[in-house]
Amino acid sequence: ETNKTFTMIKPDAVANQHIGAILNKITQAGFKIVALKYTSLSPELAGKFYAVHAERPFYKDLCSFMSSGPIVAAILEKDDAVASFRKLIGATNPAQAEEGTIRKEFAESIEKNAVHGSDSDENAQIEGNFFFSAFERF
Ligand code: CMP
Asked: Which residues are named in the active-site annotation (predicted)?
């Protein structure tokens, strides 16, 4: 589907009390919340979620960071959702993120970058299925 994407509010942004502000920006930008969950990833689950990055030098740190505290997972709906959401969150490295983006406002570093956004329609579907059953989508 081209009208869905998947996001997580990462442990840094949850710990910094930004859940409400980030969800507000997302809904203000016209995304509908299809599914929403406050949860956490074990190191094993983080490793599975980020398996595509297994060969990257930052993989181990990323998995320990992503399992360091609670997260918010969500499926979002909007036309051209993947690209539109990536524009809203800004560059992976907050130092390069544009003014007004979620990462510019809330991210701490390239690793602790506040939010995840799927990079393709295919991954949006895989990532949404990782967290949500059919009964948890509206
Ligand atoms: P995201 O794009 O959501 O998924 C992969 C994550 O890996 C990315 O966000 C960052 O949190 C992290 N990441 C990407 N590149 C680097 C890097 N060069 N150093 C550390 N962490 C990174």
From this structure: 116 (pros-phosphohistidine intermediate)
